[in-house]
Amino acid sequence: MVADSDGLHILIAGAGDPYAVLDETNRQILLTIHDDLSLLDVAAVLGLAWDELDARLQVLRAASLVHATRLSPDVLVARAGDAAMVAADAAACAEELAELVTAAWPGLERAFRALDIGQKADLADAGLLLVGGRALDLDLLNAFARQNSLLPAPPLRPAPGRPDDRYYIWMIDGPRDWRGRYGGGLAPLPWTGWVLHSFGRLPTDAGTRAAQAARVEDILTTAGATGCTPCHLAEQHGLALLSPENALRWEAACLPVSERIVMEYERRRGMLQQLHRRVDRFGHSSLSELVCWHVHLTAGFVLDQLIAAGLVRATPDDLQLGVVSQPTGPGPFLQPPAQIN
Q1: Angle at which helices 80-113 and 287-308 pack, to 10 degrees?
Q2: 332: closest CA among 195, 167, 187, 145?
Q3: What single-letter DSSP state applies at residue 178?
Q4: What is the DSSP letter of 70?
Q5: How much of the chain is in helix, strand and coil states, percent to nearest 5?
Q6: Calpha distance 325→100 (Å, rounded)
Q7: How many other CB atoms are found less than 10 A from the CB of residue 254?
């Protein structure tokens, strides 16, 4: 019952950090209990002493990754064959959605030229962040959350020292790309309502991951210096800058694209339900967890097509960052009611 392809890869959408507790053994535990094995069978398959297995399950339960009252993962787990099926369906969906985004491109370009950044760059150069990271990621997730049907805001997953974590999580048994090719993050800046937004291909090696983290840390260090302003930070590091007014304008330009994608997913609800029943035969996870993974995969495939068509200029190693105002907050997907492996 161990992983039957090239590894167990995890990704989350939302705010949280479960990676510290998800070492290889704990990932294997999630995989085996996904297959509905008993505790005795899990211990035998993984070669774990009873005390160690019990201790690890307590850690996973405390992190909201195993159900509190039954032996089942509180995450979406996909075996290699099932993951391949979902990836194929996402790729087919992306063919249609890429046409939708391409048809909307002239309008997006007009909106971009009306922004301050549009006076000195073109959309192709800023598209990885502003289209990939906004229209096909954050703004899209917010559109789903506003609809509050297929993909509402992420569930609460409290963990020790992190009581407010909220995220969807999926673990894929198979090639790393099947978890999703792209990802990003929002780091708070020292000015009210401003964040450092990063987006790009998820790094596949520790060196690239470390270099990207060091770049973000360098930017945040500059931001913390006395007298630094959002404009100064963007100029010093060559970053995109979206003022409050520009951020609202760009969000409004992306909204019709995001809402059309949500409508397309509603049209495909029946197919998504079938995929979910196939992937999670024992009903451990919610349909929304599967939808979030599918959306993430599909958006990445769409972005790949935009890059191939020359509408977005980016290389596999690119990580685009922007100093972005959020005048109305992060939006309903990340806003509490009341993020690369």
Answers
A1: 60
A2: 145
A3: G
A4: S
A5: 55, 15, 30
A6: 27
A7: 23
How far apart, in whole angstroms, are the C-alpha atoms of residue 29 and residue 34?
8
Q: Given this model, what pLDDT does residue 279 score?
A: 96
DSSP secondary structure letters along 213-278: HHHHHHHHHHHTSTT--HHHHHHHHT-EEE-HHHHHHHHHHHHHHHHHHHHHHHHTHHHHHHHHHH
242: Cα within 13 Å, side-chain hemisphere: 24
User: Which residue from 327, 333, 101, 153 is spatially nearest to 230, judged by alpha carbons?
Assistant: 327
Comparing CA positions, the residue from 112, 138, 122 lying closest to residue 311 is: 122
Euclidean distance between CA atoms 16 and 164, whole angstroms: 8
Model pLDDT for residues 92-104, shown as the tens digit of each residue? 999 999 999 999 9
Give dist(CA 68, CA 44) in Å, integer: 22
- What is d(CA 16, CA 233) in angstroms, rounded to the nearest whole number? 26
Q: How far apart are CA 73 and CA 187, in angstroms?
A: 29
User: What residues contact residue 47 under an 8 Å CB cut-off, 6+ apart?
Assistant: none
- Place 47 in a pLDDT band, splitting at 50, 70 and 90: very high
Neighbours of 100 (CB within 10 A): 15
